[in-house]
Amino acid sequence: MARFPKPPEGSWTQHYPDLGTEPVSYEDCANPEFYELERKAIFRRAWLNVGRVEQLPRKGSYFTKELKVVNTSIIVVRNNAGEVKAFHNICRHRGNKLVWNELPQEETSGFCKQFTCKYHAWRYGLDGNLTFVQQEEEFFDLDKSRYGLVPVHCDVWEGFIFVNFAREPEQSLREFLGPMITALEGYPFGKLTSRWYYRSEVKANWKLYMDAFQEFYHAPILHANQTPTKFAKAAAEAGFEAPHYRIDGPHRLVSTSGVRNWELDSESRKRVEEICRSGLFGPWDQPDLGPMPDGVNPAKCDPWGLDSFQLFPNFTILIWSQGWYLTYHYWPTSYNSHIFEGTLYFAPPRSPRERIAQELAAATFKEYALQDANTLEATQSMIESGVIDDFLLCDQEVLIRHLHKETAAWVDDYRRSTAEVAAR
Ligand code: FES
Ligand SMILES: [Fe+2]
C-alpha cells in the first residue's frame, strides 16, 4: 500500500494549529440542550442542500422535504419561468400541510399546475401566489395578493438545490461554499443521472455519522469482513493513511489513493466483482467524462481513488476516480437520532452489463454504510453514559476534530449574538 509524505511542517493536524491535538469532548453528541442550540445556530443559518435539479425535470415538477431539525416541511418546485423555488409547506387558510400523499409525515414528489389544499381547496400557483379561495365572498376584506405561500431562501449551485432558513442569509450561497468547493464547478454532475437512493433512520447524533465518513482509517478494521480474507489481512496490517486532507472555512476534504480492484489477484477480490466488473469503488469500466475541473483531486494525488468533500453542516459530495459521485445527507431528528440519505449518481447505463455494474456498486455501498450505522448506535449509547468525555483523535482523524470545533464555533457565535441582543 502506497505511503505518502505528510505536509512539510509535521502532521496534518499540526498543519491547522487552531485545531490543537488534545483529546476532544463528545458532549456535543449527547446533550439535548446543545442540540437545541445547533438547530438555531447552524441549521437555521447555514445553506442546506435539499436535492438536485434533475428531481425537477420540468415546469410544475416538485418535491417535498421534511426537515424536523428546523421544524418544518418545504415544497421545492420548478415554476413556469423554469426557476427553482422553495416554500414552507403550509396552507395560509388554517394551516393544513399543503402537499402530501397518503401519510402526512412522508415526503412526496410529482408534477402539478398548481397546489390545491386538501382541506378547503385553496389553490396556489407555482410561484406560491394564492389564486383561488373557496367561497371567497364569505371572507372579510381578503386581499389574496397578501396570502401567498411563505417563501424559503433558495439557490442552485451546479445543479444542487440549497435552502436557507435565516431571515436574511449572512452570505450568498457561493460565498458560503468558498473556493475549495466552487473549484468543483464544471464537474459533469448534470450528466450523471442514473440515481440510486438509500434512506435510513440511525439512532446516533448526526455528527457521529459524519465522523464515520470523514476518516477511512476504520475501514480495514470495521469493514474487514466485506473483503476476502487475504485482502482484509493485508489491509489491516498496512493500516490506512490518506494522501491529502484540506480544510477551507467550515468545509473539509479528504482524498484517498483508493483500491484498484481490477489489478488485484483473484484471491483478493470477490467472484461477484469479477463477474459484474464492479465493487465498492464503482464500475471498473469508466465512462469518459472529459477533463476534470481543478477542484477535483486538488493535491494531484497519484494514485487517486476519491475525494470526499464535507460541506458544513450536513452534506457530503464524494467524487470517485471511476467517473461517478455520491452524496450523503445527515438530517438530525433529535440529539441522538438522524435520517441518513446516501445517493449514488452514475452515467446512464448503455447496456445491461453497465446497469448491473452500477447495481453491484450501489448494493456494496449500502452494505458498508449499514455496517457503519450499526456501529454508531453502539457508540451513541455509550457516549450517553457520560463515563468518559475526553476522546483521542489521531492524525487521520483531523477532519473530525474540525467538524466538532466548527460546530462549537457556530453555537458560540449564536450564543454571543443572542446575548448581545438581550443586553441591548
Ligand atoms: S386549511 Fe387549506 S384551504 Fe383550509
Ligand atoms: Fe465505514
Automatic annotation (TrEMBL):
Q: Under the GO molecular function aspect, what terms does this record hold?
A: 2 iron, 2 sulfur cluster binding; iron ion binding; monooxygenase activity; oxidoreductase activity, acting on paired donors, with incorporation or reduction of molecular oxygen
Q: Which Pfam families match?
A: Rieske (PF00355), Ring_hydroxyl_A (PF00848)
Metal-binding keyword on record:
yes
Q: Sorted alphabetically, which InterPro entries does this protein's record hold?
A: Rieske_2Fe-2S (IPR017941), Rieske_2Fe-2S_sf (IPR036922), Ring_hydroxy_dOase_asu_C_dom (IPR015879), Rng_hydr_dOase-A (IPR001663)
- Which coenzymes or cofactors are required? Fe cation
Q: Which UniProt keywords apply?
A: 2Fe-2S, Iron, Iron-sulfur, Metal-binding, Oxidoreductase
Key word Transcription present: no
Top-level lineage group = Bacteria
The name this protein goes by in its record: Rieske domain protein
